[in-house]
């Protein structure tokens, strides 16, 4: 299949594209005009040391990405984590850890001062940390 560049688009097509381009420009201008929020509308984060401490209650679990919380009822929350660093030494540093594809924790209690966290991940045949959920086919993603 070849493209014939010697022919020009019909005038009606050119007008349609011109209208669409103008509409996009107006839409973008309206969208951008709403981007500047007044300072009073900006959200400000606050430290919550009690809640932060919960995720440091398991010294072997060093952190993860892609965090999702699922309320299970009864004051329980299942936390699902993506790529997770699990330490393999008593140094508890990432340079001496394994990156596993996922890990989980079960939070029991809503008040961080009285909450328990039970972290879990898998273990391979050699005893090293591995993903909690494994793919049915090796080297694939869930």
Ordered list of secondary-structure elements with their pairings:
Blueprint: H1 11-33, H2 49-54, E1 61-64, E2 68-73, E3 76-81, E4 84-87, E5 97-100, E6 103-108, E7 116-120, E8 122-123, E9 129-130
Antiparallel strand pairs: 1-4, 2-3, 3-6, 4-5, 6-7, 8-9
Describe the overall structure:
By secondary structure, the chain is an alpha+beta fold. It is built from 2 helices and 9 strands; from the N terminus they run ααβββββββββ. It has helices spanning 11-33, 49-54; strands spanning 61-64, 68-73, 76-81, 84-87, 97-100, 103-108, 116-120, 122-123, 129-130. The strands form 3 sheets. The protein has a 4-stranded antiparallel β-sheet, with no helix packed on it. A 3-stranded antiparallel β-sheet has the order 1-4-5, with no helix packed on it. β2 and β3 form a beta hairpin.
What's the short version?
It contains 2 helices and 9 strands. With about 140 residues, it is of the alpha+beta class.
The tally of strands reads: 9
On the 0 to 100 scale, the average pLDDT is 82
Helix content range of the residues, please?
A: 10-25%
Structural class: alpha+beta
Series of secondary-structure elements, N-terminal to C-terminal: HHEEEEEEEEE
Shape, per Cα inertia axes: extended
Rg is 26 Å
Walk across the major sheet and give the strand order.
2-3-6-7
Number of helices: 2
In terms of DSSP E residues, the strand content is 25-35%
What composes the largest sheet?
4 strands, antiparallel
End-to-end separation: 39 Å
Poorly predicted parts? 1-5
């Amino acid at each position: 299949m070849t493209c014939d560049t010697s022919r020009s688009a019909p005038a009606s097509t050119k007008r349609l594209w011109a209208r669409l381009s103008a509409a996009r420009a107006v839409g973008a201008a309206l969208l951008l005009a709403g981007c500047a929020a007044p300072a009073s509308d900006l959200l400000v984060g606050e430290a919550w040391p009690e809640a932060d401490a919960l995720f440091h209650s398991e010294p072997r679990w060093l952190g993860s990405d892609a965090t999702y919380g699922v309320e299970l009822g009864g004051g329980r929350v299942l936390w699902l984590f993506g790529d997770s660093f699990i330490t393999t030494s008593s140094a508890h540093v990432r340079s001496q850890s394994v990156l596993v594809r996922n890990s989980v924790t079960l939070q029991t209690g809503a008040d961080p001062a009285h909450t328990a966290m039970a972290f879990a991940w898998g273990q391979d045949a050699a005893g090293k940390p591995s993903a909690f959920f494994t793919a049915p086919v090796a080297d694939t993603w869930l």
